[in-house]
Design brief:
The chain has 165 residues and is an all-alpha fold. The chain is built from five helices and no strands. The chain binds MU-OXO-diiron.
Length: 165
Amino acid sequence: MLKEKVQKSLNQQMNAEFYSSYLYLAMSAYFESDNFSGIAKWMKIQSQEEYSHAMKFYNYLLQAAGKINLSLIEAPKVGWNSAEEVFQDTVKHEQKITKSIYDLVDLAAEEKDHATNIFLQWFVTEQVEEEATAMKILDRIKLIGENKNGLFYLDHELGKRGASN
Ligand code: FEO
């Protein structure tokens, strides 16, 4: 049986993952409207991946006989000024998510909720990858700078991304 505090935080994290899905979909739309369909595809897949993260929380809550609390999802901002700004926001967002996952792990440990702690370990590992990927793309965009050909090449590269989990 989940403790009240743990259940509340799991629901909050589920909401944060749904927000992540919304955020990356907004970013995908931004790139689509700028005709960078490869980066748009990458972001759309990222959005789907975030939806699957939210559903992991949903399924875990149900399995653990917890209550699902689907609350309002914040609207992401509309429009960015550059690809660099988008990926800066992506890095910042993933760092924020990592922090909230760590806080949840701390809470599970404090509450001696070993099952929730084990469930969260997948997210701890996933966040290392999420931050590293976003950072790598941001670094490449910084290197490309004003070079349009470089950005088109990156668009082509990111467009090769296939759907994952
Ligand atoms: Fe679900 Fe990108 O963290």
